[in-house]
């Protein structure tokens, strides 16, 4: 007797076959999910524990072989059973080499299907399949295997089940909101609301009303009482992105919220108690802002009970292949209706670049490359500024000073001529950078 119902995913563009398979599997007390395309199947795999995949091979757009390859790479322990109406020796050998454990030809009997499923699931009742990306640790949408990301994931794991105030610090494009979402959705409060607020994208005179709510008549246009983001996040998490852009007045009110665990709507007198986890983030240097008296020191210490420093992409270059694979799959399916690969030489170009725009810039580059490529992303599909290399012909030997100037120019090109960002990458001051440029 089985200890639990196994989850079986059936993939076939023939609705009659889907219904037949589902009816048989239900009669044997299996739980089924069904998909009419590889796109739909992948979406189910990402969100659902599956014990066995049953798939057809011949399907429009993305075929079953591509799905088998994807599953073999991303869910290596998941057994695969092929059901096909177009059998061939070549296809059967290809399927077996791809890790398929059973191969059925249509039409098949109910007994043949039952035997194939039972053979493919000898351990399913005892050992659930682990659906994990090999060699990559992840929380939510955060992907990486580097030491820097491992440190971030460890902190997330420690804080996800409590409501300590968290401060995420990192450059633009490093994935601060992804970290905030991982903390919320991977923890025990995931069923409660997650409310993101971009403090830099809301006009200063409206930010207080957005955060704390307002009463009818509090200002022109306030025709009824309205809850703010803090009330909407009750029991869950509010994510204050770009907190460094909040005015001193808003900062003062935030400090009181953190101290008293209550908010007062704009135009009201009576406070409202709240139970909310606060996660704040910025790409600004808050200690420098504190020195300039543009950010409150007491609020900074209230926000940074737990601080998560998020590394720039150039500090975790070993994660680039994993991120590239993620974005190739995402945009390959969206734009090409198939899985797009990348030429090793093009991947090497991506691994040499300094990525001043971090993961957001990498994603944009891959999105563009998928649109521009034919069957595979090659060097020609990458932006020109990525193709530039400092490598020179062996016969062209230059002085160290000239080599330095060439490298400075390369970094400037990679940052879109942003001298502040270039100085950070080169680990020199803007004044030193300006002097070196004047020398050239």
UniProtKB/TrEMBL annotation:
Domain Sigma-54 factor interaction: 142-371
Molecular function, one GO term: ATP binding
InterPro entries referenced in this protein's UniProt entry, alphabetically: AAA+_ATPase (IPR003593), AAA_lid_NorR (IPR058031), CheY-like_superfamily (IPR011006), Homeodomain-like_sf (IPR009057), HTH_Fis (IPR002197), P-loop_NTPase (IPR027417), Sig_transdc_resp-reg_receiver (IPR001789), Sigma_54_int (IPR002078)
Domain Response regulatory: 7-121
Keyword presence, Signal: no
GO biological process, one term: phosphorelay signal transduction system
Keywords: ATP-binding, DNA-binding, Nucleotide-binding, Phosphoprotein, Transcription, Transcription regulation
4-aspartylphosphate PTM sites in chain numbering: 56
The protein, known as: Sigma-54 dependent DNA-binding response regulator
